[in-house]
Amino acid sequence: MFDDSYLLIILTSVLIILSYLYSAISLRTKFPSVLLLLFTGIVARVVFENLGYELPPTKTLLEFFGVVGIILIVLEGAMDLRLRRDKLWLILRSFLSALVILMVSSFSIAFGMKTIFTEFTFYGCLINAIPLAVISSSIAIPSVHGIHEDKKEFIIYESIFSDILGILFFNAVVNNPTFEIQSAAWLIGDFLIVISVSIIFTGLVLFFIQKTTMNIKFFLLIAIMVLLYALGKIIHMSSLLMILIFGLIFNNLDLLAPHQLAKFIHIEKLQDGIDRFKMITNESAFLIRTFFFFIFGFTLQLQALGNFKVLITGFIIVGILYGVRYLYLKFLAHRNLYPELFIAPRGLITILLYYAIPEEYSKGIISEGLLFLVILVTSFIMMLGLLKSKEEIPEMEIYVGDQQVDDNN
User: Fold this and answer.
1) Contact 233, 239 (CB under 8 A)
2) CATH code of residue 245
C-alpha cells in the first residue's frame, strides 16, 4: 500500500483537506484542531494494522517535520510581533510570564520526577521536565481569536516567548551540565555570534528581496534559514534565536532607524514582498503542523495510557503546571485569571524537545504515552476554558492554521 504513489497522493490530499476542516471546526467549537489530527493518526494506525499492512518507520520523518515546524512557527510568531511603544508593557509582561512560569514549572516538575524516579539524577529529571513546561504556540495561537483583544495578545506573546525560551533553556541545560563560569562565557559568546550572524543575514535577505526579479525567492529564503538552523544545531549554537531576530527585524523595519535604512533599501517597496513572505510562512507552518501531529498520532501506542504509573505521573505534572500558572497570574502578575489560566496547552515543542533529549537521559522517565496524556489533558482544559468565554466569534471569518481569510471569498 505504501509503495503505491497515487494512493499516497490521495491520502495526503485527504489529510490536508481534513486539516482545513478541523481548523474550521475548531473555530466554531473551540476543540483544538491538533487533537483532531492526533486522533486521525491514531485511527489511521488502527485501520492499517487491522488491514494487515506493515507500518513504515516514522520517527525520523516526525523529527524532520518537527524541526522544520518549529522554525516556521517561531518565524511566523516573530513576524506577528510589533514592537510598538504602546505594546512594550504588554510584551514585557508576556515575556516575564513565559520566563518565570517556564523556570518554576521546569524545576518543580524535575523535583517531582526525582521524588518518583529516585534512581535518576536531578539533572536528568530537569532535562526531561523542560519539554513539559513549554506552552505550545502552535495550539494556543489558533485557539484564541475569539477572546478579548488584550487577553488574546497576551497569550500570543506569552506562548511565542515560551517556545523560544524553552528551546534556549533546554539547549543551555543539555550543553552545560555543570553550569560553571566557562558555561556562562560560552552562552554569552553564543548569543553574540548568533545575533551578529542574524543581523548580517537579515540585511542580505532584504537586499536580495529588493533586487531580485525572480518570483520563486521565498522558499529559497526558508531553505537557507533551515540550513543555517541545522548548521547551528550541529555546532551547538542557539540558532533558533537567529530565526526570532530575523522575524522581528522583518516585521519592524519601519521602527529601526528608517532614515538610515533608506540609504540602502526602499522600505515601502519591500513591504509587498514581506507581506507575501508572511503568507507563505503561515501556509507552510499550517502544512507542516498537519503532517507533524498526524504522524505523531500514527506513532502512538495507546496501551501506554493503561499504565497506572503513566497516569499518576501525567496528572501530577498537569497539576504542577496549572498550580504554578495560577500562583504566578494571581499573586505576581495580578491578572484576571480567566481565561488566561486555562490556555497553557502542550504540543509540538514538547514533542520535539522530547526527541532531542540525549540518549543517556531519554529512557525510563517520560514516554510518548505520557506526552500524549499531558497534551490531551492540557488541550481539553484549554477548550473548557474557552467554551465558557462569552466573546462572540465573527460569523464570516475562517482560520487556516493562523491565517485569517474572508469567508465571502
Assistant:
1) yes
2) 1.20.1530.20
Domain that holds residue 273: 5-406
At residue 112, the pLDDT reads 93
Q: How far apart are CA 313 and CA 145, in angstroms?
A: 32
* End-to-end Cα spacing for the chain: 38
Grid coordinates representing 390 are 462569552
Please give the model's pTM, rounded to 2 decimal places: 0.83
pLDDT number for residue 117 = 86
Number of folded domains that form the chain: 1
pLDDT at 405: 44
- Residue 208, phi then psi, degrees to nearest 5: -65, -45
pLDDT at 269: 66
Q: What is the 3-state secondary structure (H, E, C) of the chain?
A: CCCCHHHHHHHHHHHHHHHHHHHHHHHHHCCCHHHHHHHHHHHHHHHHHHCCCCCCCCHHHHHHHHHHHHHHHHHHHHCCCCCCHHHHHHHHHHHHHHHHHHHHHHHHHHHHHHHHCCCCCHHHHHHHHHHHHCCCHHHHHHHCCCCCHHHHHHHHHHHHHHHHHHHHHHHHHHHCCCCCHHHHHHHHHHHHHHHHHHHHHHHHHHHHHHHCCCCCCHHHHHHHHHHHHHHHHHCCCCHHHHHHHHHHHHHCHHHCCHHHHCCCCCHHHHHHHHHHHHHHHHHHHHHHHHHHHHHHHHHCCHHHHHCHHHHHHHHHHHHHHHHHHHHHHHHHCCCCCCCCCCCCCCCHHHHHHHHCCCHHHCCCCCCHHHHHHHHHHHHHHHHHHHHCCCCCCCCCEEEECCEEEECCC
Share above pLDDT 90 across residues of the chain, in percent, rounded to a whole number: 28
- Which residues, in sequence order, are bridge partners of residue 404? 399
Place of cell 499550517: 286
